[in-house]
Amino acid sequence: MDGVSYQRFPKVKIRELKDEFAKFELRDTDASMANALRRVMIAEVPTIAIDLVEIEVNSSVLNDEFIAHRLGLIPLTSSRAISMRFSRDCDACDGDGQCEYCSVEFHLRAKCMSDQTLDVTSKDLVSSDHTVQPVDVGGFENSDRGIIIVKLRRGQELKLRAIARKGIGKDHAKWSPAATVTFMYEPEIHINEEMMESLTLEEKQSFVDSSPTRVFDIDANTHQVVVVDREAYTYDDEVLKKAEAMGKPGLVEIYAKEDSFIFTVESTGAIKASEMVLNAIEVLKQKLDAVTLSDDTVEADDQFGELGAHMRGG
Amino acid sequence: MTSDCLGKPGYPLGQNGLVPKPELYSGQNAIVAVNVHLEYNQEDSLVMNRASLERGMFRSEHVRSYKAEVDNREMKDKKRKLGDIVMFGKIQSKIGRVDSLDDDGFPYVGASLQSGDIVIGRCAESGPDNSKADSNGAEPRDHSIKLKHTERGVVQKVVLSSNDEGKNFAVVSLRQVRSPCLGDKFSSMHGQKGVLGFLESQENFPFTTQGIVPDIVINPHAFPSRQTPGQLLEAALGKGIACGGSLKYATPFSTVSVDAIIEQLHRAGFSRWGNERVCNGRSGEMVRSLIFMGPTFYQRLIHMAEDKVKYRNTGPVHPLTRQPVADRKRFGGIKFGGMERNCLIAHGASANLYERLVTLSDSSHMHVCKECQNAVNVIERTVAGGRKIRGPYCGYCQSVDDIVRVSVPYGAKLLCQELFSMGISLKLETQMC
Fold first, then answer.
1. What ipTM does this complex have?
2. pTM for the whole thing?
3. Nearest chain A Cα distance for residue B64, angstroms
4. Quick one: B310-361 is in which CATH superfamily?
5. In sequence order, what are the beta bridge partners of B68?
6. N or C: which end of chain B has fewer CB within 10 A?
7. Class of domain B10-59+181-300
8. What distance in Å separates residue B224's CA from the closest CA in chain A?
9. How many Cβ pairs closer than 8 A exist between chain A and B?
10. What is the pLDDT of residues A143-194, one digit of tens each?
């Protein structure tokens, strides 16, 4: 055992990075690491979301619970979340979520005075903290209006106070910053050229067409089957079945590389996709710290005995 | 009166919900995977995604209304005295809490009422002009309407009106918003019904390379022998439509052939048969087999666990048999029936059986005369010296000498007495134990 280290140094290569979208490669690590990262991004990266709603007047068609639920699901800009306190750990207030360290207050007042239907949107929420705002939903139709909470007709009114708090996706999905977090194993595709050459052009074409995604194509000049986009392969086994059906098993061989992953990360807009990844790594580190025993604690020896010594690498 | 309504009805696939809806649907399109999920979807139960539910899937609103009539002051009956007129109003009730009631006897809109609270305060007016004039002062009689122990909700609206006979009445509607919970029932359009067996977190579900996670996982054993391949066709067709296909009529009289469905799926970039490669959500490893996944229309059925939970330790008993009542509304117990009894006998658990059927049910005593083996009553009789004493006395033997007290279920004693009333006297052999 001594001196043998299995430590690896994972590499990350960013392919595409936008505010709410990221695509990157993660290499030289296990599925366990990749999956831990995915799970933490979905369930444990903190954000801020409306958690408590006090409704003063509600004469809209939706009931109070419905509106409170809708408010909770509105993503709020949460770059501050990682440094904020959970209101259950907050000393400044008795965990009632009324102080500036753990909560942000919102107000909403809307009354329809005209004959036209009034859309109450996330833009109508007035925040007590300028860093925490409902996200700007760009790129969609009606994006200038924000997220619709409720529609009011003439004479109807909605007046409420809401308190937003820090939380994680494990407690409620509204706190999850992730819209999509997924990874795929990088495929390795080998074409058996010799066997492929024994096919007619027509057979080659039908082989290429058998894949639902464009993984293979035929070179216009050489009439050879080439791999155009191996990452388009979804491991659906369609081409393998086709090869078998043509009586040519082993025409292509496809393996999943066990140590490289292609991540696709989309955020709700609460935090940037890049922040989501970095915060996930930070959260993961904190979790590891919680289980790592420090070298200098003597109590650890008393407490864990041999196990403690073992964990410290003794 | 009750009404149930789904909170956010679904919209047709392929329309993104941005166009005005032609109809309101009674259910929603959930992404359904046909797979085993630990052991939590055995025997037609299903596993749901907790994140989906928290985002509002299958939330429903239930409204229940309570009605109370009141006497009209103007057209009072001659026979009724002024003090007996029943009016709405708040009084300190002995039967339930009145905290959320306003002075007029109605709860304010938005008040949260718990089980046992008063919904409508109602009392008979009795002032100083009350002819009865009770010694402890005129106390208004309470006619309030109370919530049963199974009922609760938030006040939706309060209506005051009168009927054709000129009687005033009030209706208070209580609303409850329910998110699916363990034990609630769901069904697809193919009669594949099942109860919710587990709420799993999003990150633990298998995920595709596109990042799609199922909302519902049903067990593959639901299909063989049930003859509902229609559900699989629905999922496969729906998947193609959701990925850019056109709306199709899929009635039994029109033919959307399997070939058309698989061709559409192929064009949309999916495996022909609707299967997908997924990774295990817990370990991140690729699952060896492909999983069938697709959108399926599911409905929430009204059979909900909250309406059916039944539990009690002590509670009301039936006045005749002195056994616990069975009704859920009356806070009754769960029947320990003949088959359960057989089971305990088979186990040889006689002490347990005795406890269940006697001690915890209708344990009682009766007296038996050892001499004549008749059941004996407790009576009051005069003894020598004119003193009256009360105790078991055998009228047949005219003695108190050989009377023993036996422990029997009240039901047995009742049977004894009923037979006796029909002229049948049971002889009871007794033994010390």
1. 0.89
2. 0.87
3. 15
4. RNA polymerase alpha subunit dimerisation domain (3.90.1800.10)
5. B170
6. C
7. mainly beta
8. 24
9. 98
10. 567 888 999 999 999 999 999 999 999 999 999 999 999 999 999 999 999 9
